[in-house]
Design goal:
There is one protein chain. The strands form three sheets. This protein has a six-stranded antiparallel beta sheet, with no helix packed on it. Strands 6, 8, 9, 11, 13 and 14 form a six-stranded mixed beta sheet that branches. A two-stranded antiparallel ribbon has the order 3-4. The protein is mainly beta and about 180 residues long. It has one domain: Jelly Rolls, CATH 2.60.120.
Length: about 180
Amino acid sequence: MRFSGTAIDGVTVVDLEPSTDERGSFARLHCPDEFAAAGHPFVPAQTSLSRNTAAFTLRGLHYEAPPRAEVKLVRATRGRIFDVAVDLRPDSPTYLKWTGAELSADNGRALLIGAGMAHGFITLEAETDVLYQIDRMFEPGHGRGVRWNDPAFGIDWPAQPVVISQRDAAYPDHGA
């Protein structure tokens, strides 16, 4: 795996380094030792799958409130998404800034999103599956969200959503 920093400390792009032969390829998706050696001691406690039937489905922006903030590794296992992390840590030099990456089944890329970040994505094609590995078990009552198009963030989404849940559409702007 190759780990590349982004404009936000706490958000890292993880690229595969597949071995290929006449059968195809094989790549490690997660190894606690490799993550720790790269400065990212991430060990998943839970794995979840988001299935999205329509192109331009938007999910987010979600986060878990302290003290239940979570670290997650996100990747598309079918289709393509534009994945976004927004820094909600008030003491961070990149507070309210965002970073994004295209994740697809073809490129195998993942985004490691640290605690204190809001997360969301928009599907770029129909029939897209998104795999989440999360460092802690889900506990009801700590989930929060902010509006996907809050002008405080200025996210440059590649498309307007066609499908968005009522809950996600109704999230307030940050600080509202």
